[in-house]
Amino acid sequence: MSAPSPLARLRAAARRLEREVDALVVAYRDPRVPRSARVVIGLTVAYALSPVDLIPDVVPVLGVLDDLLVVPFGLWLALRLVPDGVIEDARRRAAEAPGETLALRQTGFRIVLGLWVGLVALAWFAFA
């Protein structure tokens, strides 16, 4: 049997990443999760959803590289900060109710988008 293609491995990694993000979204709402983990989860998700990057994507290689490093590092750190029993429970709950995490992600996206629109409007009125 041949090894899976690079594209197949990438798709599998993306599915695993999505499952972990869903679990973190569920864990974020769990009262057993420490505040430090919630801060890391919130910042990581906000950065991932934000249209503004530390290094703009137009900068060759580095623009994309920051997304490939910052977001996975934030997810890794968040997974380490959430207690094992809580993250296992969150993984199970996320798998059982995928609609819950989708609604939360959409809400998070709307909040981040609203914040950026508000900041742009504030800057526009402040400097116009």
Automatic annotation (TrEMBL):
<keyword id="KW-1133">Transmembrane helix</keyword>
<dbReference type="InterPro" id="IPR010652">
    <property type="entry name" value="DUF1232"/>
</dbReference>
<dbReference type="GO" id="GO:0012505">
    <property type="term" value="C:endomembrane system"/>
</dbReference>
<keyword id="KW-0472">Membrane</keyword>
<feature type="domain" description="DUF1232">
    <location>
        <begin position="37"/>
        <end position="73"/>
    </location>
</feature>
<dbReference type="Pfam" id="PF06803">
    <property type="entry name" value="DUF1232"/>
</dbReference>
<protein>
    <recommendedName>
        <fullName>DUF1232 domain-containing protein</fullName>
    </recommendedName>
</protein>
<feature type="transmembrane region" description="Helical">
    <location>
        <begin position="108"/>
        <end position="127"/>
    </location>
</feature>
<keyword id="KW-0812">Transmembrane</keyword>
